[in-house]
Specification:
Number of strands: 20
Order of helices and strands: EHEHEEEEEEHEEHEHEEEEEEEEHEH
CATH superfamily of the largest domain: FAD/NAD(P)-binding domain
Number of helices: 7
Number of domains: 2
Strand order of the largest sheet: 3-2-1-7-20
Oligomer: single chain
CATH architecture of the largest domain: 3-Layer(bba) Sandwich
Strand content: 15-25%
CATH topology of the largest domain: FAD/NAD(P)-binding domain
Largest sheet: 5 strands, parallel
Shape: elongated
Length: about 350
């Protein structure tokens, strides 16, 4: 048997499928949405880090990868709903909703990660009342002119947080970048942020509470310029972890301000908050169908980095799902390649 089930159609899954196909195996991509590409479909910024693809956005990269898969006539099952996975001797039987059960010689989990959302801030007093003024999505900091003359807070200490803060600071009056530990971003991004006079960084700062108030009730803050309070429409792109859908909403910034109180008592007044708090692995589905498969303390899948094999024989995990240290398109593609090479050896022995 040469059939290989690849559950997830992001860059890692597509890479593994391509290599399996070229090795003479029979890969099938099982994707729960209606398109391939994973989180790349949510990233409209130019990704300059992918060799050979100059000035391509995330969706453009996803489309190119998908076209490659289609040209190789690799089967793709879209909108797939897993119902069961059973191990039977030397094979796995997978049942999808509305389809007959299929047998596979190996399974590759490539379900990726999702953006940290409401669960990261929901325990903070006042969160429920101001959550419509918080964006968790990666798309809405692209046009800094939307925030011209505004005071904005960015939460997080990684690359996305620093990039968003620096971008928004081009037009905003004041940007506050708040993270509860040491910065994890690239040093060049940290240096850019430090050089911006209208950007203030709060290291090792926890948010104690959140609240809203009318825009004319302002705090006296020596660092903060007078706010205009002008009305502005903002597209709130919120990532829904359940179905990876984007939904739009609008907020009239003339009506509400958000007050953040830090653990040390400092008060920060802002009109909008961008939460850039990192990612969570989509491993719940693995726990559901393979509860014996070993995860680490943060629910990423443990693998042998030389083969991408998990703790279960014949089961692999690739891409960001098993790489919390270096998650990106090139490493995801590489991990898919590594897994395919090992699967070819496994099925040839």
């Amino acid at each position: 048997m040469k059939a290989v089930a690849i559950i997830g159609g992001g860059p890692a899954g597509m890479s593994c499928a391509l290599w399996c196909k070229l090795y003479g195996l029979e890969p099938v991509i099982i994707e729960r949405t209606s398109e391939l590409g994973g989180l790349q479909n949510l990233n409209c910024k130019t990704n300059a880090w992918v060799l050979g693809l100059l000035d391509h956005s995330g969706p453009e990269i996803a489309k190119l990868y998908q076209q490659h898969i289609e040209e190789k006539k690799i089967p793709i099952i879209y909108d797939a709903k897993l119902e069961s996975i059973e191990r039977q001797a030397e094979k796995f039987q997978i049942k999808l909703r509305g389809q007959e059960a299929q047998n596979f010689a190996a399974i590759v989990w490539a379900t990726g990660t999702r953006i940290r959302g409401h669960e990261s801030l929901s325990s903070i007093p006042g969160f429920e009342k101001i959550k419509e003024l918080i964006s968790f999505a990666p798309l809405d900091g692209v046009n800094p002119e939307l925030y011209a003359g505004k005071t904005i807070a960015v939460l997080g200490g990684g690359d996305n947080a620093y990039q968003s803060a620096c971008l928004i600071a081009r037009a905003a009056k004041r940007v506050y970048l708040i993270h509860r530990s040491q910065a994890r971003a690239q040093q060049q991004l940290i240096n850019q942020a430090i050089e911006l006079k209208n950007l203030t960084i709060y290291h090792h700062s926890e948010i104690r509470s959140l609240s809203t108030k009318p825009s004319d009730a302002r705090l006296a803050h020596p660092e903060q310029p007078e706010l205009t309070g002008a009305s502005m429409r903002i597209a709130r792109d919120e990532y829904n972890a359940a179905d990876e859908a984007l939904e739009a909403d609008s907020v009239d910034l003339s009506q509400k301000l958000t007050l953040l109180i830090l653990q040390d008592g400092q008060k920060i007044e802002t009109e909008y908050i961008f939460a850039r708090l990192g990612y969570l692995p989509n491993s719940e589905i693995i726990t559901q169908f393979m509860p014996e498969l070993e995860l680490d303390s943060t629910n990423y899948v443990k693998v042998d980095p030389y083969t991408m094999q998990t703790s279960l024989a014949g089961v692999y995990a690739i891409g960001d799902l098993s790489d919390p240290i270096n998650p990106c398109v090139p490493t995801a593609v590489a991990s898919g390649t590594v897994a395919a090479r090992d699967i070819e050896k496994l099925l040839s022995s």
